[in-house]
Amino acid sequence: MNPLFQYWYFHLPNLALAAVMYTLMGRLLLSLFVPPDWKNYIWRAFVRITDPAVKITRFVTPQVLPHVVVLVFAFLWVMVLRIALFALFASIGLLPTVSG
């Protein structure tokens, strides 16, 4: 059986968090070069995908921080969530195993 399907309960949330995390990194890097209201479809997709994480981070961070710093903290919080997911599955013994 394919390990991706066998351990779907781990891989699906991990891949979703990874997608958000790397999209946040892309948004952060692009925000250094483009205006926040840019109409490009790739930029709009980055904003739409990452806005929930940015809004949650903005809620818990001080309002005086610039938006770029909030993006950095959102990236870090999503990375912490991925590590916590790994630790949770490791602690309950449901982490995917390496076959070989």
Shape designation: elongated
Unreliable sequence segments = none
Q: Could you give the distance between the termini?
A: 14 Å
Tell me the radius of gyration: 16 Å
**Secondary-structure element order, N to C:** HHHH
Structural class: mainly alpha
The average pLDDT value, as a whole number, equals: 92
What proportion of the residues form beta strands (DSSP E)? under 5%
Q: Helicity level, as a percent range?
A: over 70%
- Strand segment count: 0
Count of all domains: 1
Features:
mainly alpha, 73% helix
Write a structural description.
73% of the residues lie in helices and 0% in strands. It has one domain. 12% of the residues are buried. α2 (8-31) crosses α3 (41-60), α2 (8-31) packs antiparallel against α4 and α3 (41-60) crosses α4 (67-91). With 100 residues, the protein is mostly helical. The radius of gyration is 16 Å and the shape is elongated. It has helices at 3-6, 8-31, 41-60, 67-91.
Describe the secondary structure blueprint for this structure:
Elements: H1 3-6, H2 8-31, H3 41-60, H4 67-91
Quick rundown:
With 100 residues, the protein is mainly alpha-helical.
